[in-house]
């Protein structure tokens, strides 16, 4: 399993409108070691959970401290980290940049397979594994939200990363496609860190983090974490 270490990491952003013009801390400092196969993250909008996820593959660099994935520093060893960590955004159209799914999967495999024929064969295998062969040559804009999300996952998983990080992957999905996504995630051999507002999905984990106001305020059993989060946000 993958080991992620977040050591004293914090993230600050400029605050030009403030009278003292000092940066504002939006996350941390945090100290975490993640080794579990499935970790979920819950928190309100603006709590810092998306920033935490972006630390894990170097999309955001820590202002203080450092983050490592299997010993690789996300800043110093950025390229190597991104080969080990796949990141899936909330909106799959953020990942699907070419007209069809087949082209997107082939693009993701370009570094792994230099030969075009080998790349096309590998892309076909990936699409078949996710049950997407019949949709591979359709415009991504003609696909349903669930089909796009599965296709985006196929794209980022094509290169067989060690860790998959997902930022609210079920937000745009209906119940049926959320359950389909859950089945796909449960079958993956990769370690998964997933942020979600879907508390049923959050429970399908070995460990759950609750993020509030830039801090991890609960870390542990998923059911206890969801109960803690409900206590933070539910009205009396």
Textual characterization of the structure:
By secondary structure, this protein is an alpha/beta fold. The chain has a single domain, classed as Rossmann fold (3-Layer(aba) Sandwich). The protein has eight helices and ten strands. The strands form two sheets. The protein has a six-stranded mixed β-sheet with strand order 6-7-8-3-9-10, with helices on both faces. β4 and β5 (72-73) form a beta hairpin. α3 (101-108) packs across α4 and α5 (145-157) packs parallel to α6 (175-187). It is globular. 40% of the residues are buried. The mean pLDDT is 92. One of its GO terms (molecular function) is ATP binding.
The CATH class turns out to be Alpha Beta
How many domains is the backbone divided into?
1
Straight-line distance between termini: 41 Å
Question: In what order do the strands lie side by side in the largest sheet?
Answer: 6-7-8-3-9-10
Mean pLDDT: 92
What is CATH's topology name? Rossmann fold
CATH H level, superfamily name? P-loop containing nucleotide triphosphate hydrolases
CATH architecture tag: 3-Layer(aba) Sandwich
């Amino acid at each position: 399993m993958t080991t992620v270490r977040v050591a004293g990491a914090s993230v600050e952003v400029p605050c030009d409108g403030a009278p003292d013009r000092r940066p504002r801390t939006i996350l941390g400092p945090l100290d975490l070691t993640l080794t579990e196969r499935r970790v979920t993250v819950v928190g309100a909008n603006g709590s810092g959970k998306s920033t935490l996820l972006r630390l894990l593959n170097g999309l955001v660099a820590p202002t203080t401290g450092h983050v490592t994935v299997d010993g690789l520093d996300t800043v110093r060893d950025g390229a190597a980290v991104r080969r080990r960590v796949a990141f899936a955004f909330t909106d799959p159209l953020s990942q699907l940049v070419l007209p069809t799914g087949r082209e997107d999967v082939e693009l993701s495999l370009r570094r792994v397979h230099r030969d075009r024929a080998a790349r096309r064969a590998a892309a076909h295998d990936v699409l078949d594994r996710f049950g997407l062969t019949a949709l591979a040559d359709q415009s991504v804009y003609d696909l349903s939200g669930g089909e796009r999300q599965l296709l985006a996952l196929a794209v980022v998983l094509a290169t067989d990363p060690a860790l998959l990080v997902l930022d609210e992957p079920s937000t745009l999905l209906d119940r049926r496609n959320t359950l389909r996504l859950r089945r796909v995630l449960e079958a993956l051999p990769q370690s998964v860190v997933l942020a979600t507002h879907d508390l049923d999905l959050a429970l399908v984990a070995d460990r759950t983090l609750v993020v509030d106001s830039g801090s991890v305020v609960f870390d542990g059993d998923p059911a206890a974490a969801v109960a803690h989060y409900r206590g933070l946000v539910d009205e009396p």
